[in-house]
Amino acid sequence: MLPPTAPHPDDAPSRGLFLALEGGDGAGKSTQGRLLRDWFRERGREVVMTHEPGGSALGTQIRQLLLHGDHVAPRAEALLFAADRAHHVETVIRPALHRGDVVITDRYLDSSVAYQGAGRDLDADEVRSLSLWAVQGLVPDLTIVLDISPELGRARRGAVHDRLEAEPDGFHARVRARFLALAAATPERYLVVDATEDPDQIHDQVVARLETLVGVTP
Ligand SMILES: Nc1ncnc2c1ncn2[C@@H]1O[C@H](COP(=O)(O)OP(=O)(O)O)[C@@H](O)[C@H]1O
Ligand SMILES: [Mg+2]
């Protein structure tokens, strides 16, 4: 287990707002990300939309290796995701939060815990501490989990599957359970929504929760 690292000096209280969208592919992360981006922009906030893996130039290359290559050894996979995340946080997310922007990331640390920890044979706590080390402890102010069944996720994704999406439904069921367990462990940092509801209804639930967070302009 990696030792905890000292907090990063940029993570003082007076920074921007860091939001993560999590959930299986097809859950509606991109849809909700767009609605959320527009909501903040209408309120005059600068918004940085980003995603993992691949939210930086280096990350785009790592993403290619991860999602479209052949078999990747589980520990190599966990390290590559963590390397992508370390670089993404250092070059994209922390600078934006330092400017006071809203950062909306499509997937973050919990995806590693859920996919590498629950879906494969690595210990979830080890995967989590690896990623926390990589990002010097930066966790979102709010993580929105779009909860969807493996069957519906598969139906919404259509015929296009990358290496992880192509895993059987049992894998996706373990991933789903892990997202829910992470949310239950620190509920003050999470909003779990039923991804089968109408996109506008989901957005309303997200906004209602955001309005209770410090740093959000109503
Ligand atoms: N709440 C919803 N109800 C029904 N369909 C949805 C909902 N949210 C998204 N979709 C549709 O499901 C598909 C996947 O949505 P998307 O936002 O791309 O998911 P993700 O980014 O999580 O993979 C798209 O065709 C989208 O229009
Ligand atoms: Mg998407």
Describe the protein.
- With 218 residues, the chain is of the alpha/beta class.
- It has a single domain, classed as P-loop containing nucleotide triphosphate hydrolases (Rossmann fold), CATH 3.40.50.
- 51% of the residues lie in helices and 12% in strands.
- It contains 8 helices and 5 strands; from the N terminus they run βαβααβααβααβα.
- It has a 5-stranded parallel β-sheet with strand order 2-3-1-4-5, sandwiched between helices.
- The termini are far apart.
- The model has no long low-confidence stretch (mean pLDDT 90).
- Magnesium ion binds next to helix 1.
- The site of magnesium ion has 3 residues, from helix 1.
